Amino acid sequence: MFNILEKKKLGPDVFLMKVLAPRVAKHGKPGQFVIVIPDKKGERVPLTICDINQEEKSVTIIFQVVGLSSRKMSRFEEGEAFADFVGPLGQPSELIHESAEWLSSKNVLFIAGGLGAAPVFPQVKWLSQHGKKPDLILGAKTKEQLILLQELTGFSHEVFITTNDGSAGIQGFVTGPLKQLLEERPGYYDRCIAVGPLIMMKSVADMTRPYGLKTIVSLNPLMIDGTGMCGACRVTVGNRTRFTCVDGPEFDGHLVHFEEAMRRQGMYHQEETEQDHLCNIDLAINKSHTK
Amino acid sequence: MAINKRIPVQEQKPEIRRTNFNEVCLGYTPEEAVAEASRCLNCRKPLCIEQCPVQIHIPEFIQHVKNKEFALAAETIAQSSLLPAICGRVCPQETQCEGQCVLGKKGDAVAIGKLERFVGDWSRENTTSTEKKTGCNGHKVAVIGSGPAGLTCAADLARMGYSVTVYEALHKAGGVLVYGIPEFRLPKDTVVAHEIENIRKMGVNIITDAVIGKAESVEELMKSEGFDAVFIGSGAGLPKFMNIPGENLNGVLSANEFLTRINLMKAYTDDHDTPVKTGKKVVVVGGGNVAMDSARGALRLGADVTIVYRRSEAELPARREEVEHAKEEGIRFQLLTNPVEIIGDEKGWVKALKCIKMELGEPDASGRRSPVEIPGSEFLIEENTVIMALGTSPNPLIPNTTPGLEINKHGCISTNGDDGATSHEGVFAAGDAVTGAATVILAMGAARKSALAIDRYIRTKFNTQNHEK
Hints:
The complex is a heterodimer of chains A (about 290) and B (about 475). By secondary structure, chain A is an alpha/beta fold. Chain A contains 10 helices and 17 strands. Chain A has 2 domains: about 1-90, Translation factors (Elongation Factor Tu (Ef-tu), domain 3, Beta Barrel); about 95-220, Nucleotide-binding domain of ferredoxin-NADP reductase (FNR) module (Rossmann fold), CATH 3.40.50. Chain A has helices spanning about 20-25, 70-75, 100-105, 115-130, 150-155, 175-185, 200-210, 245, 260-265, 270-290; strands at about 1-10, 15-20, 35, 45-50, 50-55, 60-65, 80, 85-90, 110-115, 135-140, 160-165, 170, 190-195, 215-220, 235, 240-245, 250. In chain A, α4 links the parallel β9 (about 110-115) and β10. The longest helix of chain A is centred in the last third of the chain and has 22 residues, at about 270-290. Chain A is globular and about 55 Å long. Mean pLDDT of chain A is about 90; it is low at about 275-280 and about 285-290. In chain B, about 35% of the residues lie in helices and about 15% in strands. Chain B has 17 helices and 16 strands. Classes of the chains: A alpha/beta (about 290), B alpha/beta (about 475). The interface of A and B includes residues 84, 225 and 275 of A.
């Protein structure tokens, strides 16, 4: 069992949990992920590692309630424990393989959309500690959904904020400031790392492609075992089929077949929402019992 | 009962079992087992033993069954095999022990597999485990993978007095016994759980959720965690695809994914969260046990199922019993047929499978006649789901993270001779990780040899070192 040391609500339906997981804490690196199984009958839920505390032997995850399993997870409280917490899985961010010279001289632009702030955070933190502070575009639907703003700002050089409704920063999408930066600072950025919804990552990749700006994206497809066994997470990258769990989760955004990835993401959509519906009823029942 | 006919074994009726996941074969009653055992001629030169990968003293245990000495029968089997209740259910007996039975020449071979299963089940239900912790000899061995190879090696080493830790990547121990072989062929909560519990009782520490190669590396286990030797029994878990157009459409999945959803995650039950989707019409591509398991699993979820296989019925690599069971349950076999393309609808879901008819040509290197396409014979099978059951290969995770561990061109770990010693000192391997996808019994047999080799290695190494001091 894996104890939950801390639980925080970061926004509407968005939770942060710090989990005691010595094996993952010891070996995990930025860009890797874990699989959480909430209880004995639960699903295997892949989530990117958001932070690691070596002294506490803890791993931080952030998730949004979107279906049955994430709702189940959100009901866990501090002091309770998840049945399983496996990792680290996947390849670490390629940043950690770059030379010290590269890290201290190159200009990196991070782009995080919505919950993408969570996987971006450990990389921004790592880069600021090992090289030059990166710039960051952080976007969300509304001000309330901007997560980790303070933490990310502390490790970043320039920060640009966008919200779809204009409740904070620039109104619109992350591609707004990106377009401006690409036009105003030609050749300035050496690397772009974008994490967020597939449609956002696709838009970013489409926008950076003509500028020849290498763009790395992080995928979060359907997955079961996370060790290369099931093949559910396959994605076409540069006309080759890759498994996100062992070859990724990061890939060259200019080579990812995003249309296919979006289509595959929706494969169990109906089941997810139906279960969500049942789960709401379940919740209502629970509430009436506690009253 | 005539001597040339075997005692029939009770089974769930096809029309009933196709709607549930309970075990198909119900096994012999003691009376039936005794009657079947009485058919054994107790040959002076028993050919059955030669064909058994672990050389169980077959006529001896069968004589005990005949004399109603079931505990003695269990002891006889235990000398050679650890997992009779499992092997009795999943071994391809028709090509091993039963294939050489003298009675098989004129009638039915003795039902050796069913008798082995009977003894394994009887022993589980009627005896309390005699396994206990052996005094520790002070040496630690790490075992990677808790499938048939890992469990066998761990048990043998524990009996020799080693302190054994098994690392399992998934959240349940058992490997292919848990994620691969379905409940209707191998009950998990009774048979498999019992065997794993026995091994725990021996003092073996089984750690789940530990992905060696991602968390600890093999080097770390040996250098920092103090293991004197490492055994790799990580199996062959990587699915193969055909590399034909349309394979990434929605509704195309590997047999590994389908079976893992059903078996490990119990997606067929209402109270487990993992979903499984089959649609009304399912095509399973392949002809091995995994193809049969997938087809019969999909059938039990309510689908209409067709198996597409490129050779003819005689070449189906699956156990005969599974093929028969699949047919009885109403699975359609589209033989001498090979998929060439998967066709999707406008939303990117599978709509049809384009196949081509095949004919058998000259025998290939494996001795099987290789299938050749018949030009112009393409046709369509309409369907919603394609399950690819084309075999698996070993996971590269451990070789990739273990410098000095050599693999061959198929990705299998290279070993010297048959004792499982690898190119890396102190690292041994056996089972599917070495051979590629094979059977439970072969993995078990090879793992036992590795356990002996690990013992020899540690004895030699530490005697030498003591000598030097």
